[in-house]
């Protein structure tokens, strides 16, 4: 199997996986294998995700349940790919010559699901009994040196118009990627959602509405009677009277909250919050 015989999606999934949790095995002196292979260890709780990933390249990847490993046979394909992903010292690098192939959101989605985290910070207003939750995305790629992260970050920005910030970290080579804006986080999760929506086991990372519901149940048990809201800049941006009248009209006509959000180009949770205000004010 040749790399260029794979479909565009398969190429993006494979490259993203090798950058992320996967590795191309090394060949050692005396080994009976003539070619390298692919290997990706995982915890048993992530087996559904690995099956989902495997479904993209079923003729190439398979799972060995006993060792919780997603792997391939020894193939010329991985012998061909090895020098793109590892320098002469055996350190993992970004495959610069292959980045021109990494133009699909599958590439970003795989890296994020492999090495990313949806981190949540909370702010509690006890006077108003409101808990604000703010999500942020981190890519823990500290196994790459700084210059390699810069190459990856530049490619993502140029190709997908998504900009990460490079932050210091105490382990690995000392740097990770993260977003500095909640709006970018929401946009990123929305952009990759056509791919990630089919992998329910990873919703805790990829589906903010699902994750918010889980967090809401936890916080409301700890703080009964408190509202839990998703922080975003839209909520703080004033609605015009025209927008408010449009919201009321759409809601009275039976439009769902998500449809109203799309119509007004607002976030879903901004509309949910505004509807609560309008009901409280007696306008709905």
Commentary on this structure:
With 284 residues, this protein is of the alpha+beta class. It has three domains: 1-88, Endonuclease I-creI, CATH 3.10.28; 103-231, Endonuclease I-creI (Roll); 233-280, Arc Repressor Mutant, subunit A (Orthogonal Bundle), CATH 1.10.10. The protein is built from twelve helices and nine strands. It has helices spanning 8-19, 47-54, 76-85, 105-115, 146-160, 182-196, 203-206, 208-222, 233-236, 241-252, 257-264, 268-280; strands spanning 23-24, 38-41, 62-64, 69-71, 116-125, 130-139, 165-168, 175-178, 227-230. The strands form two sheets. Strands 5, 6, 7, 8 and 9 form a five-stranded mixed beta sheet that branches. A hairpin with a 6-residue loop joins strand 7 (165-168) and strand 8 (175-178). The chain is elongated and about 80 Å long. The mean pLDDT is 92.
Task: Name the CATH architecture of the largest domain.
Answer: Roll
Class by SSE composition: alpha+beta
- Compute the gyration radius: what is it? 22 Å
Give the overall shape.
Answer: elongated
The N- and C-terminal alpha carbons lie at a distance of 62 Å
Top CATH class of the largest domain: Alpha Beta
Mean pLDDT: 92
Major sheet, described briefly? 5 strands, mixed
Low-pLDDT sequence parts = none
Number of helices: 12
CATH fold naming of the largest domain: Endonuclease I-creI
Beta content: 15-25%
- Relevant CATH superfamily of the largest domain: Homing endonucleases
